[in-house]
Amino acid sequence: MTATALTRTATRTDDPVLRDRRHKDARAARDVADWLSWLDLGGHSPRTLDQYERDLAVLLNAFPEKTLAEFTDGDLAFVLKRWRQPSTRRTRKSSYASFFGWAVRTRRLEQSPMVYLPDIKAAPQRVQAMHSDAEVEQLSALPQPDGILMRLLFDTGIRKGEARHLRARNVDLDRGQLIILNGKGGKDRVIPLTDRALHAAADVILLDAIRPDQFLWYSHPGGGRLKRDRPVGEGSFHRWWDRCIEQAGVQRHNPHSSRHYFATNCLRKGIPLQEVSMLLGHSSIKTTFDLYAHMDVTLVDVSLLERT
User: Fold this and answer.
1) Is 214 in contact with 90 (CB distance < 8 Å)?
2) What 8-state DSSP symbol labels residue 23?
3) CATH-assigned architecture of domain 3-116
């Protein structure tokens, strides 16, 4: 087991799988440890390693006496059925495919038992709920700094984790761009700022005298002075979002909807899907395509449909 995976694991004391350490004594535990070390060497993030370990722990706990070569497609099907949601099964199946694919690549196995499992159908693509242009304007019109921060979310499409860790030095006011460092998957990217997003960023940084090492999103302990010396927690971010939604009087959608709004606007403006994928920080253009291939349907004027 890698040191990074163990460190990450140690922080998840709420996880019943990792509280149960039986998988460490399973006969295939050494192979899982070697696989995680191999992935670590290849640059996979600690979060990914942690997730893989938890997924494989379920398999090892179910069949602790089996060696790597003894696992069958029946064993894998038995374990995958524990997750009821098809989307979760697909994700966990990819973890097992990675593990047994590694075993074949490193000549530990001649063939992966995964090849005998059926494909798990993806859930039907749904139209993503998001705010209207008018609602975004209402949110962006909130008093400083909330309205300004909302404008940044909707005009850059950054993830909530990226927003929480966004420092003033990541905003290049001279070049008009936002620099995301160590985003999802450890990737960096640069997002050009619209004029209104650039002005919003300049306002919050200059008017609030935010230092380069300070964070744009703030905490407000006890209703006192705003604090920006550390990233706000995920719970605090959601409370900030809900408060802004309530103050603006708009329909509630989750914070991730701001990314859908950004992507929709980009595609409406004719920005190629590949560029939108890069701006969103997707690992593959296929991810962007799967999410937004239905854009030709969602961009139809609903009022026209209601009159037919």
Assistant:
1) no
2) G
3) Orthogonal Bundle (1.10)
d(CA 188, CA 133): 29
Q: Is 1 within 8 Å of 38 (Cβ atoms)?
A: no
8 Å CB contact between 193 and 177: yes
Domain boundaries, the chain: 3-116, 133-306
CA neighbor of 162 nearest in space, from 281, 273, 274, 289: 281
**DSSP secondary structure, 38-71, as one string:** HHHHTT--HHHHHHHHHHHHHHHHHSTT--GGG-
CB 225 within 8 A of CB 256: no
3-31 residues labelled b (16+ CB within 10 A) or e (exposed)? ebbeebbeeeeeeebbeeeebeebebbeb
What is the residue whose two structure tokens read 């000549």?
107
Q: Which CATH architecture has domain 133-306?
A: Orthogonal Bundle (1.10)
Q: Which amino acid is at 141?
A: A
Q: Is 173 helix (H, G, I), strand (E, B) or coil?
A: coil
Rounded to whole angstroms, the Cα distance separating 198 from 221 reads: 28
Helices of type H across 113-233 = 133-140, 146-156, 160-164, 195-207
User: Which has the closest alpha carbon to 150: 161, 165, 172, 135?
Assistant: 135
Q: What residue type is 52 in one-letter code?
A: Y
pLDDT per residue as tens, the chain (308 positions): 443 443 343 344 445 445 567 889 999 999 999 999 999 999 888 888 999 999 999 999 999 999 999 999 999 999 999 998 888 899 899 999 999 999 999 999 999 999 999 998 876 666 678 899 999 999 999 998 999 999 999 999 999 999 999 999 999 999 999 999 887 767 889 999 989 889 888 988 988 889 999 999 998 766 667 889 999 998 999 999 999 999 999 999 999 999 999 998 898 888 888 898 999 988 888 888 877 765 543 443 333 333 33
Please state, as a whole number, how many other Cβ atoms lie within 10 Å of the Cβ of residue 71. Answer: 23
